[in-house]
Amino acid sequence: MKIGFLQQHNTADIVNNMERLCDGIRDLARRGAELIVLQELHNSLYFCQVEDVNNFDLAEPIPGPSTDLYGRLAKECGVVLVTSLFERRSAGLYHNTAVVFDRDGSIAGRYRKMHIPDDPG
C-alpha cells in the first residue's frame, strides 16, 4: 500500500488552504497513494498555540461543509483519506476530530480527542 502524507504552509485564507489541499490530494492520488493523511487542523492556521475564544468560530459540525468536500474528493480519487477537523459537536462542546473517509467518500470513522491542544509554544 502506498501512503501519502500532505503537509503545507497555511495562511489565514481558509478557502485557499483547502484548494491547495485538494490539489495536493489529487496529486498524491495520481502518484499512486491509496491512503492519504493530512496535517492536524489543516483547514486554517494552527491556532492551538494561543487561547483565544475567537478561534471557536473556526469550528464546524460533522457532517458539514468540510466533510462534504473531503468525502467527494476521497470518492473522486478513490483513496482513503484521513483529515483533522475542528468539530463543533454542540454549543460549547468542541473537538479536534480525525475523520476517516473510505474510497466511496463515506465517513468510515472518527476519533474525537478529549481536548483541544492548548500549548503555549
Please list the strands of the largest sheet in the order they lie side by side: 1-2-3-4-5
Roughly how many Å is the radius of gyration?
Answer: 14 Å
Q: What helical percentage do the residues reach?
A: 10-25%
What series of H and E elements makes up the topology? EHEHEEE
Number of strands: 5
Number of helices: 2
* Sheet with the most strands, sense and barrel status: 5 strands, mixed
Instruction: Give the integer mean of the pLDDT values.
Output: 91
End-to-end gap: 36 Å
> What are the low-pLDDT stretches, counting only 5+ consecutive residues below 50?
none
Which percent range describes the beta-strand content? Answer: 25-35%
Structural class: alpha/beta
What spatial form do the alpha-carbon principal axes imply?
A: globular
Describe the structure.
This protein is of the alpha/beta class and 121 residues long. The chain has 2 helices and 5 strands, in the order βαβαβββ. Strands 1-2-3-4-5 form a 5-stranded mixed β-sheet. A hairpin with a 5-residue loop joins strand 4 and strand 5. The longest helix is centred in the first third of the chain and has 17 residues. The model has no long low-confidence stretch (mean pLDDT 91).
Question: Keywords for this structure?
Answer:
alpha/beta; single chain; 5 strands; 25% helix; five-stranded mixed β-sheet; 121 residues
Short description:
By secondary structure, this protein is α/β, with parallel strands linked by helices.
Layout of strands and helices, then pairs:
Layout: E1 3-6, H1 14-30, E2 35-38, H2 65-77, E3 80-90, E4 93-101, E5 107-112
Parallel strand pairs: 1-2, 2-3
Antiparallel strand pairs: 3-4, 4-5
